[in-house]
Design a protein that fits this description.
Layout lengths: L2 H14 L5 H16 L4 H12 L2 H10 L1 H22 L1 H30 L10 E8 L2 E4 L3 H10 L3 E15 L5 E8 L3 H5 L5 E2 L14 E5 H8 L9 E4 L2 E9 L15 E4 L18 E6 L5 H18 L1 H4 L3 E6 H6 L3 H30 L3 H9 L4 H37 L14 H27 L3 H7 L5 H37 L10 E7 L9 H16 L4 E8 L9 E6 L11 E8 L3 H5 L3 E4 L13 E5 H7 L9 E4 L4 E8 L17 E6 L5 H4 L6 E7 L6 H12 L4 E7 H8 L1 H35 L1 H9 L4 H30 L1 H5 L11 H27 L3 H5 L3
Helix pairs in contact: 1-2, 1-3, 2-3, 5-15, 6-13, 6-15, 6-16, 7-10, 13-16, 13-18, 13-25, 14-17, 15-16, 18-25, 18-27, 18-29, 25-27, 25-29, 27-29
Length: 888
């Protein structure tokens, strides 16, 4: 059967049955095609197909009655045809699927993080009723709650069904294997009921155990139960030695409840707050790092709770004006407390990775437009056979959605691997990181995103091909409209270049910010400095203050004598880049301020070698010596901020200052200011003063806590191999039950303080790099296709005298023109969007419109564009004029 007879038979159907709708006409086409394939003539095939329906009218009625079934059949035909077309072009299919997999995979990975962190509710009963509670104090809006204040707040409030406080601590465990330091949290009795946590074995704590000094009960985590006790049910009622004291195990707590709570992961021991052996718990002014959770009563709103707590705290302040005046409660939804800080950043990443997907879609759309050149004749024939525009568009969109779904399936695998790798690399940067999983919502997102992407990148090529001029295309053999198609491809390349510029600019600004941060002086020298926690033997917890001081002096002397150690010092909660409460103070000659007027200072309690170990600059006077002990006059060292602000005449040395109480300390030295909260912030908008107190001059109540709560700072003489092993050996020689843990270098601590910014830079940089690669591939594809389509024109130019260099410049000019247009548009868009980085506090030491970054990004993209155009340009240079003239 000749092509002419085929076209004539189907053309007769189209002309004689104009009233047929597109679906019936396509059905008749399929039937006629089957008859023709069986060997019938055109007329015989047409009549046989119509006889199968009986008549046109009956066919139309049947079409309406069975429209749904026929639509599914047509869809199945489209899918089969689309699969065949994709199999016929394996190179195109592989490139398109891989491009889409990268874009969809990156989006799915970031959405899985957004879903786990922001969208999923907290894994507790009625999570919207949970709030965090802090004490609002002068100079410290989210401060710790004193235990006596909490007991009054708990008794007098009308808004909470449960109200609990907690405090992180640590214990030295002995008697079950080698001595081991355990992470611990002391809590009040409402803590576990508030979160809906039920013990695996035994019980939690009773209200009677909230009374100070009453309880010796503890609960252990399921992980410690398994690791130390073999998950034996006989553990309940057993004794456990912690810091030399005997406690009784009353319950086993599951570990999965803690995955959402910052700081609770890895906790081994839970103890009742009333049993925590700390005399300072009785103080209404002590800042001990105690914070709280509350569960609102049903029907009580957050605003009502805030109003109720305002009444309660005012009443407590009136009863205790010297200790609680000016102290209020701050209530924040618990989920907002946990994830509010990272929400804008995650949404920024979601927007950035969305741009990557758009670039991937543009790339595939360009590939499909280039491929459309070879399919124009096919579409013209299908149109001549009676297929309407809607029918043709549906067929093309079916192919694009099939591509996108296949890319989405591969993207899911990429997302699973990429998400876990990112979380493993920086697990502490993200709250609720352990809850990030590829759940049903993520799977549905990936499917919908794939379908959307398929429609997005398939629509433009589909419209282009469906609107082609049938007669012109058949006359020209499929060459018509190439100019319009090149313009469409060029416009798409400009769009993806512009989007790549936006991401590259953002990544460039973050890289420059991180570089600026690494050059910031932290106020000390972190090189060759290592820190660790020290727990003295358990029996020291019952020793006298004098014995504890003697043991600590002996430890100082032994470690300082270890080969390779240049300087060493004990400290008590006094490391830079770590959380640190402040305290009130006033100077001699000033009226003792009220509680609402107290000046705030960060207090470092350290040994005499601290300034040498940290190499903090000594600006005036002296630092502590061994003679500054419990028997000598109390002394203090202040930083330059306090000295400048409170002693403007430069006469701070020798003056008296009262820190945290009425006792007077003499200022003996002035040191440089330390960036306590990180390199990019300096404690507050106005620098917060810092004071240093001698370790050995701590009061007896604090000294009693040091056997299990001390830290050590050691500076080595350069890079000393095996230094920590030598220190551990020295410690074991002193006592085998002495525990050293939590070893970290100061450089590691600084790096951890920059983890969130480094995480942002890594992800945005990765997305920008991917966008640049995809954009350059898209540009390469367009220029290569342009060269292929204009081989005849290039041959004519060279036959008329054009040199190879002229051809090279002409091809490169086509690519550079597109790249420069994208650069200009992208820079304008980036100038507005990069301000988001400033609003999210991700920039440091660089403007959101930094000209060097903008210029550098523009140069990089232009160079990459030239490189992408070079291969097709060199191919064009090698065109043989005689071969090209015979091209068509």
């Amino acid at each position: 059967m000749s092509r002419m007879h085929w076209l004539k038979a189907l053309f007769n159907v189209k002309q004689s049955d104009r009233e047929l709708d597109d679906e019936l006409r396509f059905d008749l086409e399929q039937r006629i095609a089957a008859k023709l394939a069986a060997g019938m003539t055109g007329k015989e095939a047409e009549m046989a197909a119509k006889r199968e329906f009986g008549s046109v009218d009956l066919a139309k009625e049947e079409c309406r009655d069975e429209r749904g079934t026929r639509w599914l059949e047509d869809l199945w035909l489209d899918i089969r045809f689309g699969l065949r077309m994709l199999r016929k072009n394996p190179g195109f299919t592989a490139i398109a699927i891989l491009t889409l997999a990268l874009g969809i995979g990156a989006n799915t990975a970031i959405f899985s993080v957004v879903n786990g962190v922001l969208l999923n509710p907290l894994p507790y009963p009625e999570p919207n009723q949970l709030v965090s509670v802090h004490a609002k104090k002068t100079n410290f809006p989210r401060g710790s709650i004193s235990y006596p204040n909490f007991m009054d707040w708990h008794a007098q409030n009308h808004c909470f069904s449960h109200f609990a406080v907690y405090r992180y601590t640590g214990y030295n465990m002995t008697g079950v294997g080698p001595a081991e330091e355990l992470n611990a949290v002391v809590v009040t009795s409402d803590f576990f009921p508030l979160l809906g946590v039920k013990p695996i074995l035994g019980r939690t704590f009773l209200p009677s155990e909230d009374v100070l000094g009453v309880s010796n009960a503890v609960a252990i985590s399921a992980s410690l139960w398994s690791r130390k006790y073999g998950s034996s049910p006989e553990v309940i009622g057993k004794g456990i030695a912690l810091d030399g004291r005997e406690y009784t195990i009353v319950g086993v707590i599951p570990t999965d409840f803690a995955v959402s709570l910052r700081g609770f992961q890895g906790v081994d021991i839970y103890g009742p707050m009333g049993g925590w052996p700390t005399p300072a718990l009785r103080s209404r002014t002590a800042g001990l790092g105690i914070h709280g959770f509350g569960r609102l009563k049903p029907g009580v709103s957050l605003e009502q709770a805030r109003a109720d707590m305002e009444i309660v705290t005012r009443h407590v302040a009136e009863v205790y004006p010297n200790a609680a005046k000016g102290t209020r409660a701050t209530l924040t939804p618990l989920k907002e407390e946990l994830v509010g800080r990272v929400r804008p950043f995650l949404l920024l990443l979601l927007g950035a990775v969305g741009i990557v997907l758009l670039i991937a879609c543009v790339n595939v759309a360009n590939l499909m437009l280039a491929r459309a050149t070879g399919r124009t004749r096919e579409m013209a024939v299908r149109s001549a056979l009676g297929a309407g525009m809607g029918r043709l568009i549906r067929q093309m969109l079916t192919e694009s959605v099939l591509l996108a779904l296949t890319g989405g399936a591969l993207g899911l695998a990429i997302a699973a691997a990429g998400t876990r790798a990112a979380l493993d690399a920086l697990p502490a940067t993200l709250p609720r990181a352990m809850e990030v999983t590829m759940d049903a919502r993520v799977l549905l997102f990936s499917i919908l995103l794939s379908v959307f992407a398929g429609i997005l990148f398939g629509l433009i090529p589909a419209l282009r091909m469906a609107r082609g001029n049938v007669s012109e295309t058949l006359k020209e053999g499929g060459r018509g409209g190439s100019g319009k198609r090149h313009r469409a491809q060029g416009a798409l390349v400009i769009v993806e270049m512009a989007m790549a510029i936006v991401l590259l600019t953002g990544a460039g600004l973050l890289i420059r910010s991180l570089a600026a941060l690494w050059n910031v002086d932290p106020g000390f020298n972190p090189e060759n400095v290592v820190t660790f926690n020290l727990a003295l033997p358990p029996f020291m917890s019952k020793a006298s203050p004098a014995a504890i001081r003697a043991a600590l002096r002996n430890f100082d002397a032994q470690i300082a004598a270890t080969p390779g150690v240049e300087a060493e010092a004990l400290s008590w909660g006094s490391l830079p880049m770590a959380s640190l409460d402040d305290d009130g103070f006033w100077v001699d000659g000033q009226r003792k301020p009220g509680s609402t007027e107290t000046n705030g200072t960060l207090v470092y309690i350290v040994g005499p070698g601290y300034w040498k170990a940290m190499k903090i600059p000594l600006l005036a006077g002296r630092f502590f010596s061994e003679q500054d002990d419990e028997h000598s006059q109390q002394v203090v060292v202040v930083d330059e901020v306090l000295a400048r602000k409170y002693f403007p005449n430069g006469d701070a040395l020798g003056k008296g200052i009262h820190v945290g109480g009425d006792d007077r300390s003499e200022i003996v030295g002035i040191v440089g200011h330390v960036k306590q909260w990180g390199l990019d912030t300096d404690d507050s908008s106005s620098l917060r003063a810092q004071t240093y107190l001698p370790f050995q001059q701590m009061d007896d109540g604090r000294i009693a806590l040091t056997p299990s709560n001390s830290a050590v700072v050691v500076r080595s003489r350069g890079l000393v191999p095996g230094l920590m092993e030598s220190i551990r050996h020295t410690s074991e020689q002193m006592n085998r039950d002495q525990v050293i843990s939590g070893t970290a270098t100061m450089n590691q601590i600084i790096a951890q303080s920059l983890a969130s910014k480094r995480f942002a830079m890594m992800l945005l940089g990765a997305f920008a790099g991917l966008a640049l690669v995809l954009a350059s591939i898209g540009l390469y594809g367009v220029i290569a296709h342009l060269v292929g389509q204009r081989t005849h024109e290039i041959g004519v130019r060279m036959a008329l005298g054009a040199q190879r260099g002229d051809v090279l410049r002409w091809v490169l000019a086509q690519g550079v023109r597109l790249a420069l247009a994208g650069v200009v548009i992208g820079l304008v868009a980036a100038a507005g969007l990069t301000r988001l980085l400033t609003n999210l506090s991700l920039l440091f030491g660089v403007s959101a419109r930094d000209p060097l970054t903008f210029a550098g990004v523009a140069v990089v993209l232009t160079v990459v564009a030239l490189a992408a155009c070079l291969i097709p340009a060199r191919r064009a240079m090698r065109v043989d004029p005689m071969t090209a003239l015979r091209y068509e």
